Amino acid sequence: MGVVLLAAACGGAGDDESLGALEHPVLLVGIDGLDPLVVGELIAEGKLPHLAGLAERGVLGELETMDPTLSPVIWNCIATGQPPERHGITFFSDAEGRPFTSNARRVPALWNLVSDGGRSVDVVGWWNTWPAEPIRGRMLASYAAAAQASVIWKSPAAWKELEEQTWPPTLVEELIPHMIFPGDVEVVMNRLHEVFPRPHSSFGEVLRKSQANVAWSLAADQSFAGVGRYMLSNEAADLTMVYMSLPDVAGHGFWSFREPEAFSYEIGAEARQAFGDYVSLSYIEADRLLGELIAAAPKDADVIVLSDHGMHANPAARDDPSQGATGHHLDVPPGILAAAGPRIERRGNLLKGTAERSLGHVLGVAPLVLRLLHIRQPEHWPGVANQAFSLAGCLDLEWSTNNPALTTASVDRDFRAPSASRIPAANLDDEFLNHFSGIGYGVLEEKE
Q1: Is 357 helix (H, G, I), strand (E, B) or coil?
Q2: Tell me, what CATH number does 244's domain have?
Q3: Model-level pTM?
Q4: Which domain, by its residues, includes 196?
Q5: How many helical (H) and strand (E) elements, i.e. helices and strands, does the chain have?
Q6: Mean pLDDT, residues 85-96 taken together
Q7: Which residues share a beta bridge with 79?
Q8: CB 263 within 8 A of CB 326
């Protein structure tokens, strides 16, 4: 299927008369919760070959993040170039308890700006993208059911019951072969045990719930990566954006096995044998999927990979073995950014004990992407107006000198007005609970 083209909307950030053909497309991959320390250790052990390859060909360093350090907040900061008080996605759900949906966002995101700027864009699984918006390209939107707040608030790969999850609307049938649906319990569990060891014993409710979280997230990531590969292999857009969540989910549930000395209680030998590698294995799987995306991308693409935050032991769970979230990130630990390509400076792995590890801030991602696409950057964005937020240091010096950043006035006023978050289907919470129960967590009190 070819990329759907829309007439460029008025007031876009870069419908410039000088806009010519794009020499190098951009692949932007977001991987939730990748921690710089874990990434550095696993690269040193040779276990993350694709992130290591980006560092060798380009640069890898830390990426400063936002407070509050919450996934929907930060991924919308990354997509819009603006802080939460401007983009309006300030938590997982709104004041009425409804998960934020795309129509509640107050400002344009990259997919809107790139479309208005005359470029094509494909988006897969990014936070708060349901209902899918009309863009100059393709979108598989994500929606988190309200019931997920009590278990795992991460995006499912897709819902068979959910309408408006793709743009164009007919795209959904084309993408089904590349997705694992939550109701496909046997497939989900088989995929889980291909990546993570199969426990030989039965464990308590907390660990069963955490394992089901990982199974759910793994199925989503493999689906999003599969859809991303398909789009990259079939008329790749100027910008392709793919989101994955597995390292964050595994880190929350299994950090106590990675860093047992941070907790006062003893973890049994059987549990250590079953779950001790979950955090590392989640990073290794994310790197494998990243490698597949890079392989499918055009050979002359600039590749940018980032996480929204890092992670470490949760002090609130130190003395409480019933606490499921043993990893946390509420104290704003930095994430990572890796980039390589024709227009990226070769600075190497800055995580290897260098004095300056930081590459910039999450608010600098959207300006960097627009600059690579030769689209004007809104001059009021923090990543444009404030050098402290900029990621311009990732750019090849010669290219950057010959291609200075171009700016424009704010385009926010021309964006459609926000509206109340939508509820897609009355039975979606029940569907989620049934699916989640089926993949290994037997009783959910929230279902009562």
Answers
A1: coil
A2: 3.40.720.10
A3: 0.94
A4: 26-447
A5: 15, 14
A6: 96
A7: none
A8: yes
